[in-house]
Amino acid sequence: MTRAADPLPTAPGALPLTGHVLQLRRNPLASVQAQRDRGDVVAFRLGRQRAYLVNDPELVHQILVTQAHGLTKGVLFQQGRRTPPSCVRPPPP
User: Fold this and answer.
1) Which residues, at least 6 apart from 17, have a Cβ–Cβ distance to it below 8 Å?
2) For 20, which of 29, 44, 65, 93 could close a Cys bridge (C-beta 3.0–4.6 Å)?
């Protein structure tokens, strides 16, 4: 008998319509750091879109380098690629 895979842990505090967007906008670094102990991959919601935070450095390398050609990146990733560099604000002095 095989055991079904455990579901991915989900970040707490999602709101019904916006998911985790408000948390991430208020304090993105703290929101991401708070998920470190939840597991190697943590699911969260950006509105209706499901997104994943990868906490394990080896998994990040595998996703971004080893298997990058065979993975679907999704709409949010594609939109980020189209953002011209002039739209990105530099950090405050």
Assistant:
1) 47
2) 44
Domain that includes residue 29, residue range: 21-83
Q: What is the pLDDT of residue 3?
A: 44
Q: Give the number of domains in the chain.
A: 1
Closest by CA position to 20, among listed 41, 39, 46:
46
Residue whose C-alpha is closest to residue 45's, from 35, 57, 55: 35
- Is 26 part of a structural domain of the chain? yes
What pTM, to 2 d.p., does this model score? 0.65
Q: Say if 3 falls within a structural domain.
A: no
- The mean of the pLDDT values for the chain is 80
Helix (H) or strand (E) holding 41: strand 41-46
